Amino acid sequence: MKWNISKQFDFCYGHRVWSQELNKEFALDDCLMCRHLHGHQAKVVVHLESQTLQNGMVTDFKHLNWFKKFLDDTVDHKFIVDINDPLFNTLLPHYKENKAFFKMEQNFMIPDLNILKNEPLHIVELYEGYIIVDFVPTSENLSYWLLKIVEKKMAKIGVKVSHLDYFETPKSKSTVYA
Fold first, then answer.
1. Assuming Cys at both sites, which of 81, 100, 126, 151 could form a disulfide with 112, CB separation 3.0 to 4.6 Å?
2. Closest among 123, 89, 87 to 15, alpha carbons compared
């Protein structure tokens, strides 16, 4: 037998898919809207599986509370920007020369706000809103990034992640399998 449980999480974020290209025959137009700065109300569904039960469960759903906290603290109401985006220096002009970032364990960076100590509060608040990654923040890449974060953490208690669903919109979903 095999059991699968899942838990859903929601958050808001912004991004830009600077690498977007369209085939006009299929898209019916050539409007590259995802290249614009824009935002989403995302939904993530984490699926855990096991062939045995511990205390009658794959694991307690509360064992994913850390992931909700991670999403709330890290990506909710933030702008996810690829460090390779041609607009990176335009979006983060204070970091053109001095790429002062803190590298986080979960494979992302945040700006070192110490270099902004003489800037007005609204500039500091702008930079507080950035999450810097080293990939184009498409739903496919974001789902893979989040899957790896969940897999690493859940492995500490012996729980297997089978897959992760990432809804960029209510009608657009990416699924990545472990």
1. 100
2. 87
Q: What is the average pLDDT score of the chain? A: 94
pLDDT (0 to 100) of residue 63: 97
Beta bridge partners of 81: 132
Give per-residue pLDDT as tens, 4-41. 999 999 999 999 999 888 788 888 887 788 889 999 99
Yes or no: say if 139 and 145 are a contact pair by the CB < 8 Å rule: no
Cα(109)–Cα(138) distance, rounded to whole angstroms? 17
End-to-end CA distance of the chain: 19
Q: Report d(CA 149, CA 58) in Å as an integer.
A: 19
CA distance 113 to 128: 8
Do residues 117 and 50 lie in contact, with contact meaning Cβ atoms separated by under 8 Å? Answer: no
Phi/psi at 48 (5° precision): -115, 145
Domain ranges of the chain: 3-177
Res 173: pLDDT: 97
CATH topology of domain 3-177: Tetrahydropterin Synthase; Chain A (3.30.479)
| Res. 98 pLDDT band, cuts 50 70 90 | low
